[in-house]
Amino acid sequence: MSAAPEPSFPAATILGYPRIGPRRELKRALESYWEGATTAEELRATGRRLREASWRRLAALGLEGPPSNTFSLYDQVLDTAVLLGAVPERYRRAGGPEEVYFAMARGADGLAPLRMTKWFDTNYHYIVPEIGPDTAFVADPAKPVGEFREALALGLRTRPVLIGPITFLLLAEAAPDAPAGFAPFDRLADVLGAYEDVLRALAAEGAEWVQLDEPALVADRTPEELAATAAAYDRLGTLPGRPALFVASYFGDLGPALPVLARTPVEAIGVDLVRGGVSGLAALAGKTAVAGVVSGRDVWRTDPERALPLLAAVRKHAARVAVSTSCSLLHVPYDLDAETGLDPALRERLAFADQKVAEVVELARRLAGYDGPPYQAPPAPVETAAPPAGAGRSPYPVRAAAQAAHLRLPPLPTTTIGSFPQTEELRAARAAVAAGTLPVEEYDERVRAEIERVIRLQERLGLDVLVHGEPERNDMVQYFAEHLDGFAVTRHGWVQSYGSRCTRPPILYGDVRRPAPITVRWARYAASLTDRPVKGMLTGPVTIVAWSFVRDDLPLRDVVFQVADAIREEVRDLEAAGVPIIQVDEPALREMMPLRREGRDAYLAWAVAAYRRATSGAGDRTQIHTHLCYSDADQILDAIDGLDADVTSIESARSHGRILGEPALRDFPRGIGPGVYDIHSPRVPDEAEVEKALRAALEVVPPDRLWVNPDCGLKTRTYPQVEASLANIVAAARRLRAALRPAGG
After folding, report:
1. 3-state SS class at 744
2. Interatomic CA distance for residues 171 and 595, integer angstroms
């Protein structure tokens, strides 16, 4: 137990705040540092300025005791690995602290980066820690201690935030040399020693509270994992002289983990009351309940008539109640006030991060005097009957024969996923069109020139199936949102996806319709430049919805089917225009899956049905591709099979070919392309590296069904990186293709 009486917890709090900067200042600082234009100290200085600005802003909004150590130069899980000393030995030779850190995140010469995947069911990506039996956990609390001191210098006492030990180890993966059967969670007792050292260091600095984030506890956990959770927090809770502990959960209901945590000595427990329910709250007796009633995952205003009764229900059980966001505000844009171009009627319904902070503060004020009606759960949106799936396509063998005769592709056909590098000139031209300083006709000419450049480059490199490079697209979801009814887009609503990568999620507020063709013009133009097949590129209905802020007055399934109907119309128009291959990407298929097993089968059933509806209008000769990346696709191979795409490309290089170890992949009946080039790293894979990856794939996938492609689109890379990498990919594929050819053939 802590030696001192429990300190007071703020009446209003948040679990985290955006960190990229209101104008993406961190993005620019990171990319400048990576390019060698600025120093590590200049990068650190940008971080200090952003942290100070955030703390001052939160104080101005009325928030006391804001969180600290939520800022990151790349990813908070990677930060935790460094905090605990869990740095694989091979990266330690990369150089100084920044070089080691970014080598793990992005790779370096001769070093592939650590694997990256999705943070639970969000579009945020985290770096997967690598833990082995011999990983030496040695705490280095410099970052949380340093940020706590920075805030103290501003007159602010913050609450340092750490990824909790249970979540950290459950998200980690075994080191490559770990023995069979080893799991990172086996090292829990060892890692707790490092956590104790961090808590001691923060207590010595005067930290009264420390927040330990445990979102893994809202997923299904085994009895053994729950017992280990109890033992872990009993141990941390009895550390002499420690700060008070606040265990935060989010993205769902704690379920059986709530009474487990409540029986430990931790002083405060956070519950997500936006995605979770109110059952089991009696377990909070004697604890501070940090009640997440303001959503950190969407941009809709909080209804106080729902939130206040909910808070009052929590107050009946807990010793104290603090009003909070349901999760970190990392997942929403900074400030609605920057969006002057939105329709006023829509603006009235919206709240971004700063507005949500104000909601938390106001709800805490109103709760103090609230004596209104008891909480009643709102009625769930009424699900309509699932729409018919549309005309089914012919069986795959029939389609495969028609496509082979039509396309006449060689074995191991080479292609890319879709996008090519977005140059500064293209971005500037797009901004100039939006500002009204560049005529649309001139912009179109620049897009045509870029498409021709991309086509000629692919022809010269020898790729078999080409793409137009998507120079006209700002983002694979936003571009479609701009052309569909029912969506609104922002000018400054940036949200971090990973590292320096940001997106502007559209706001899906109404019924979705496609008023006109979206992609046909540029696909037709690209095809006119070459005799080789060119893919039409579309984003799938699940992904468009997953990467948007979605209306909450309809069941999610119904919204997805509306988008599927719009995409089906686009597929038909592309086919009518003579486009022989159409790729409909669904990288969010795994991401959207419920965190608990209950509900997963129902979700996958309607998600697969929506995809098949979107592609159902294609004829047998039209080859349908799909693509999935950075979302643990190995966990849903049956659902991917159910999509019935003719060719599926899957991230594989970044995860070191993990997908190839899945037995189900050997029986996958259609074309598949396990990626051989990790495009999220600046590394250029050499020909031998690509050939090794292809040979590994050929042990699992027959050569007549194996495609050769990168992990993902090339938008974030430079042309020199892309040209060198694709040249090596084509050379490796041709070498293996020749080896497969019968002698004298």
Report:
1. coil
2. 13
Q: Tell me what the mean pLDDT of segment 53-72 comes to.
A: 97
DSSP 8-state class, residue 93:
G
- Report the amino acid identity of residue 135: T
In 3-state terms, what secondary structure has residue 367? helix
Contact 119, 495 (CB under 8 A): no
Type of residue at 101: Y
541, amino acid identity: P
Q: Residue 4's pLDDT band (boundaries 50, 70, 90)?
A: low
In sequence order, which residues have a C-beta less than 8 Å from that of residue 478 and are 6 or more positions away? 489, 503, 504, 505, 506
> H or E stretch including 228?
helix 223-237
Sign of CA dihedral 415, 421, 425, 427: positive
Alpha-carbon gap, residue 172 to 8, rounded angstroms: 34
d(CA 450, CA 539) in angstroms, rounded, equals 21
pTM over 0.90: yes
Spatial distance between the Cα atoms of 722 and 735, rounded to a whole number of angstroms = 20
What is the rounded CA–CA span in Å between residue 579 and residue 593? Answer: 32
Q: What distance in Å separates the CA atoms of residue 513 and residue 729, rounded to the nearest whole number?
A: 40
Residue 244: its H or E element? strand 244-248
Q: Is 625 a catalytic site residue?
A: no
Inter-CA distances, 408 with 400, 464, 704, Å: 11, 10, 12
Angstrom CA distances, 217 to 168, 255, 553, stand at 11, 8, 28
Token representation of residue 46: 């940008």
Which parts of 107-158 fold into alpha helices (H)?
Answer: 142-153
302 three-class SS: coil
Secondary structure (3-state) at 9: coil
CB-based contact 145:152 (threshold 8 Å): no
d(CA 493, CA 502): 10
> What are 433-448's pLDDT values in tens digits?
888 999 999 999 999 9
Is residue 146 helix, strand or coil? Answer: helix
Beta bridge partners of residue 290, listed in sequence order = 270, 322
Determine which one of 125, 492, 625, 680 is catalytic. Answer: 680
State the pLDDT confidence band at 3, using cuts at 50, 70 and 90. Answer: very low
Which pLDDT tens digit goes with each residue over 375-432?
888 887 777 776 766 667 999 999 999 999 999 999 999 999 999 999 888 889 988 9
Could you report the per-residue pLDDT of 65-93, keeping only the tens digit for each?
999 999 999 999 999 999 999 999 999 99
DSSP single-letter state for residue 393: P
Q: 313 to each of 278, 321, 535, 557, how far by Cα in Å?
A: 8, 10, 55, 30
Q: Model confidence at 42, in pLDDT bands (50, 70, 90)?
A: very high
Mean pLDDT, the chain, integer? 94
Q: Residue 742's pLDDT is what?
A: 67
Asked if residues 260 and 229 have their Cβ atoms less than 8 Å apart, the reply is: yes
CB-based contacts of 541: which residues, under 8 Å, 6+ apart? 560, 561, 563, 564, 566, 567, 610, 611, 614
Angle between helices 142-153 and 40-60 (to 10 degrees): 50
